[in-house]
Write a structure and sequence with these properties.
Layout lengths: L2 E10 L15 E13 L2 E8 L8 H14 L15 H8 L10 H21 L3 H9 L7 E7 L9 H13 L5 E4 L5 H12 L7 E4 L6 H11 L6 E3 L7 H10 L4 E3 L6 H10 L8 E2 L8 H14 L14 H10 L4 E3 L16 E2 L2 E3 L12 H7 L4
Parallel strand pairs: 4-5, 4-10, 5-6, 6-7, 7-8, 8-9
Antiparallel strand pairs: 1-2, 2-3, 4-12, 11-12
The protein binds magnesium ion.
């Protein structure tokens, strides 16, 4: 078998909303389709991938460097030992030839985009949902029926006051979510506390998380910590700049309730430095590395191994992103839970259509691969590629 073609496209996915650090009006998302010569039910198997949520399409890097390297490799050198399926680690190594170490950034997103499609194709060739393929080959061999899920929301938007914020939160609770996350740090602290109090009318504090998106200085992060402390929230996310590990260590010294961070660390090595120098506490804090932004599943498996070597549980990992990739790795690799973006970041946010969310848990899709064929708005974008 072999990869016969790789197609890609970028679409605009801009939305009129913002967090403390950025607005999403110019957002783009990249898609790829990895076409194989393996035929199932009369059709060739195609794997799909996308460039994650909250960062832009990096398909130019895919086009210029990663895709040509995949086709430059001998096609047999990309296969597993039996020669009947792709070996995603071999494809990953082919893509990453001639790249300098470190400097992780947009290249990590480009690699993830293609890596996701390769894993989607490999699981489809095996005839299994990705979580089952991962659990059998790289995990504990079993998987749950459903996994814990929380919803990311509570953004800032023009003309959006407390009633609109409360309406959104009510909608999430009606949808079956029990833990909700809202943005802070994009308004004066007194206003954010009013927003927080408005949401706490609907959600108990141990089920509310807040996210400053890395925007606060140390002084501001500590001031927010002081204001948030009495509420004993579920977690306080990305108080300061994602690579300022000293800031996180300082906040962790002074803020007793759980902290969460990691979505903007794009490699195993960056994650390792967070655990070494960020002062985080393995008994309570959350790690949110985003597989779709950080070199994909091949690198995520290395990150999980590192997390455990550093004395943490893989249950402390709650992948950021709110999409099918995060759901599959959570279920297949035994992580703590996943985020969901049911309405934002479309067409990649959220899971397959009609997948049950109830009591703070989400079920698992039964389609082979990631199940993109069961998400109509996503599939309408990628099916044109194949
Ligand atoms: Mg966040």
């Amino acid at each position: 078998m072999r990869i016969v073609d790789i197609k890609e496209r970028t679409i605009s996915t801009g939305e009129k909303r913002s967090n403390a650090a950025m607005d999403f009006s110019d957002m783009t998302t990249g898609f790829v389709a990895v076409m194989t010569d393996v035929i199932r039910d009369g059709k060739p198997i195609v794997g799909y991938g996308f460039s994650g949520t909250g960062r832009y399409s990096q398909n130019a890097i895919c086009r210029d460097r990663m895709i040509p390297r995949i086709f430059a490799a001998d096609s047999d050198s990309l296969l597993n030992q039996a020669g009947d399926n792709l070996d995603p680690f071999k494809v990953w190594a082919a893509m990453m030839q001639k790249e300098k170490p470190a400097g992780h950034g947009d290249r990590a997103v480009a690699t993830s985009t293609l890596d996701m499609a390769v894993w989607d194709a490999a699981a489809k060739i095996a005839g299994e949902p990705l979580y089952a393929f991962l659990a059998k080959n790289y995990g504990a061999g079993e998987w749950p029926d459903r996994v814990p899920v929380y919803v990311g929301g509570g953004y800032y938007a023009p003309g959006r006051g407390l009633p609109e914020l409360q309406d959104e939160i009510r909608g999430h609770l009606d949808d079956g979510f029990t833990i909700v996350k809202m943005k802070i740090g994009g308004a004066p602290i007194e206003e954010d506390v009013r927003r927080l109090e408005a949401v706490l009318e609907l959600v108990p504090s141990e089920r509310l998380a807040v996210d400053a998106n890395g925007r606060l200085s140390l002084k501001e992060a500590l001031a927010y910590g002081k204001a948030l402390a009495p509420y004993q929230l579920r977690w306080y996310e990305e108080p300061g700049y994602p690579l300022d590990f000293d800031l996180h260590a300082e906040v962790a010294k002074q803020y007793d309730s759980p902290l969460a961070t990691g979505e903007n660390l794009l490699s195993m090595w960056d994650a390792k430095n967070l655990l070494r120098y960020g002062g985080l506490r393995p008994d309570k804090d959350l790690l949110q590395f985003d597989c779709a932004l950080s070199y994909g599943i091949c690198e995520y498996l290395r990150t999980i191994e590192m997390v455990e070597q550093e004395g943490w549980s893989r249950r402390s990992i709650f992948p950021h992103g709110g999409h099918l990739l995060s759901l599959h790795i959570t279920a297949g690799l035994g992580l703590g839970g996943t985020e969901a973006y049911p309405r934002t970041h479309q067409p990649v946010g959220g899971f397959t259509d009609g997948l049950e969310i109830a009591d703070g848990f989400v079920g698992l899709p039964e389609l082979p691969g990631l199940g993109f064929e069961g998400k109509a708005n996503f599939y309408s974008v990628v099916s044109e590629l194949a």
